[in-house]
Amino acid sequence: MEIKKAIIPVAGLGTRFLPLSKVLSKEFIPLADKPVIQYIVEEVQKSGIKEIVFVVSPGQKAILSYFKKSPDLEKLLTKRKKDSVLKELKDFQEKFKDMEFSFVLQKEPGGDGHAIAQASKMAGKDPVAVSFGDDIIDSDQPAIEQLVEIFKTCNAPVVCLKAIPREKIPAYGSVVVEKIASRLYKIKKIIEKPEPSQISSDLVIVGKYVLTPDVFGYLKKAKPSKKGEIILAEVFDKMLNEGKTIYGYEIKGEWLECGDKQKWLKSFFYMALKDPRFGEELKQYLRTIK
Ligand code: UTP
User: How many structural domains is the chain composed of?
Assistant: First the structure.
């Protein structure tokens, strides 16, 4: 079955970026000169999906303007003979001209699962891809395409996984798995922020998924956890307890996390140093500073 839509929730509080996130949502912080959200959108686009539904907070409706044409600005740049920036702007707009963007509102930050549930009408009865707004995979084959390929063989929800050093796992969503093929697992249990004694694999959850319509049914019925949030990983765990099958796929590529300041800085340097426009000079500069 074709996957035609992707949901990108960006309505989180982004508390790890305070005070910046009071005025700028973390998805608009750049890696080199491109906001994180653009990498996420391009990953979805390169995976062959043309429809994107953002889940936004009341202050974020402007997200669509970023990807839209700006005729007034084009006119002004033309008048001022700013040819090279005008070309850059036009190239950027051209890139997204075939994409269909829309948004749904999450009035209160009720958790990542609650955010996805807001888009259930847009998803309808079809499976959808979901990518959180702060996890990028830099890879030859785009991450969502990798997950969709797996989905086509198994017709059940697919969760993106990545192996990380054991000592780091307590900060992530950890999985208990049964390996069924190269990189492919049946997920047996999900433990959010596990104690070291609960860790049974070196795999953790990356914020990218293919969701089937039944996941939306569970999300809608889910009760908020102690913190008042509906968390997708907890809903998955409930599904597993009720005998549902969920697959995990160990994604190929470099995981660039952007959820906190330290991770974002690493991802920033990764992208800036890789960029032929900035990399060489930046490397030389870094050698000169202590
Ligand atoms: P995070 O777990 O990173 O949470 O959300 P957060 O609220 O954005 O950031 P912190 O933890 O306070 O620093 C994962 C993804 O889910 C979205 C976020 O925007 C991010 O893309 N999300 C989270 C929502 O859309 N709504 C929510 O209520 C929570």
Answer: 1
